[in-house]
Amino acid sequence: MTTAGWPRPPDLTDDPHVVWAHDRRSVGELLRDADHLARDLLLDLDGDQAAALLRTWGETVQAAAELWRSLPTPTPDAQGRADAEILTRLQAHAQRMHRRQLSMGWPGDGPADERLLRIAETFTRAASLVDRFHTQPPRPGLLAVVRADVLAARTRVIHTLHVASHGTGLAVRQHVQNELRRTHGSRDLRETRAVPRGTEALRRLEVFERLAGAYVGRGFVAAAEGEHQLQMNGVERLHSALVRWDIHAHRVTAYAPAPANLALVAATQAYIGTATFAVIRAGAETGELDPSIRVRAEPALEATQAAWADVAAQWRRLTDASTARTDPDLRATAAEVRAALLEITHHTTSPASTAEAAARADLPEAAHSLQQALTAAADLALHLQDTAPQTNANVPARSALAAYLAADATVFEGEPRPNHGHLGTLASPVDPRALRHNDLVPLPPPVAARIGAAIDLTVNAAATAMSATSGLDHSGQAGAGAGADREPPPVGRRLVDVHVQTKLPLPEPGWAR
Amino acid sequence: MDSYDAGLDGPFVQGDSSSDRAVPDLGPSPLAQADGADPEATVVLAQVRWLLHDAAEQVRLQAQAEGLSSAGHPLALGAELAACEAANLMAQPPLDDYGPEHVSAGVLDTLAAAECLTRSLPIDAFPIGMSGLVIRICDLLAEATPLRGAQQVGPVGRQP
Predict the structure, then answer these.
(1) What whole-number distance in Å separates Cα of residue A228 and Cα of residue A250?
(2) In chain A, which residues have their Cβ closer than 8 Å to the Cβ of B32?
(3) HSE of A196 in the Cβ direction (CA atoms, 13 Å)?
(4) Could you give the ipTM of this predicted complex?
(5) Mutating which of B73, B97, B148, B151 best tests the A interface, going by the most A Cβ atoms within 10 A?
(6) Is B149 touching A (CB cutoff 8 A)?
(7) How confident is the model at residue B5 (pLDDT cuts 50, 70, 90)?
(8) What sections of B90-129 are H helices per DSSP?
(9) In angstroms, what separates the C-alpha of B159 from chain A's closest C-alpha?
(10) A103: how many CB neighbours lie within 10 A of its CB?
């Protein structure tokens, strides 16, 4: 059931039990509709809606809190009471946020957001139904099915707030980015004040989202799970994400080398290569990095990106639904790397221009962090090369057969193929009984050989990329050219570094193999 | 059941069975199903995972063909990470992949189909953590939307 096209309900009267004759939705259906409205909000956002969303946010949380209070406490134990307090915290948080907005004078008076209003009205309608039909106080002997249903209703309420807070935060974030772009270079505080007040609203929304997410998720997590954060003027997040990624990637490669994990490791490394090029290009075009680095790095990064992507494809081919689980920490850190890079290379949902990327982060510093990541990637590739032959991976039989057929065409290209019996080269090394039940089977030798060849290529490509980007330390910044007006001349130790660097010959591709 | 009928279960009934058969009458709470997964939710999750995986593959192939500057690379990784998240939500993954052999839809439609699937059951029918996956898929949809027909960054997937 959807609410699309419904006439607007009349305004609430003083009667809390007002019933709209045409609205026949149950509490459960109302909560589902609120969930769908929140998702629709998330799918249609831009920065211009930030003020209206913030104006309506407090009302939405207030309506949710009223519904929450009308629901009976599902479990009388301490955990149940603690869970019941979550919306009290969220409401208090929203009220503090509202007071702060009043003191800062933003967003001020203006139109409300119709979608959040619809969610608030839906919550109010649900609260009205609960108040009307369930007035008895909570009791320990609450029927188990009702207790489960109340828990489900509470989950839906918080989930809706979780999604809506994420959407509101995205709109505010886009608003801040738009303002940064509009006022770039301005020193007029009246012009630039939109940035700090938007940033503060965003930080508060992030806290709200995390509180709500902890209730409907698995509690607070160590990594940021790829959620957007606002750290426009620094690369601390990127550096931290890359360091954590390096640690987790090495750990998983050593201790949990399942195909799904290895595929994710390789895919993330491929993306790091892509993003490194985006940062180098932006730095070269804005004069913050030596343009010759781009010329040197592009073919090497292209090769390492393709090599890692090929390794990822090989391992991914060996997974299916039954073996697709990945290490949660690995996934979270990969998401964090992606999000940290998107903060620099993307504007809202599109690639940022080079000027935007330069305004958002210190590109030489970001490039330096990425160069360190490429160095770590070269080590990771060697680590993978060492551990892969010992990896006695068991993979689903059907995936193994598909990978075997693909590997058969490449490994034995131009060579006589082994005779597998009367079926010739089409004969499968996979047990037909295992195929029938899709049991786990050892990796067929041709597949292992194909993966080994791909890893060998990756080792070489990663070493080449590491060499080609070795000038991305601070001495790789543009010198007396376009970037000279923003960088002081090198002195002391840095001068020595620059001098030494300029005396060194350009590294040949693959010198570090 | 009349939605306004308090009845035995009161007004908390999670769905009107006469109007919407897709909604279970009594959705189990995520806290209650920590030990046992709803089999219907597992099937939906497997389908969602497959669609996200397919979307990732589509974008990745196109991005690889376009080179380092393609805007599809982060979207491909994002879709893959979401597929991993869906896989991790399944307590007991099914043996089958629950996906068609070939999908003729483009990336945006595939992601939209995955998002629609997550609406087929109430959020409390899914395992804990589904709320985050819903947000991730909606974010991917927003990311994929500007790519449709954006000539300056190259087309992604099989979009017209």
Answers:
(1) 25
(2) 148, 151
(3) 8
(4) 0.78
(5) B73
(6) no
(7) very low
(8) 107-118
(9) 17
(10) 8
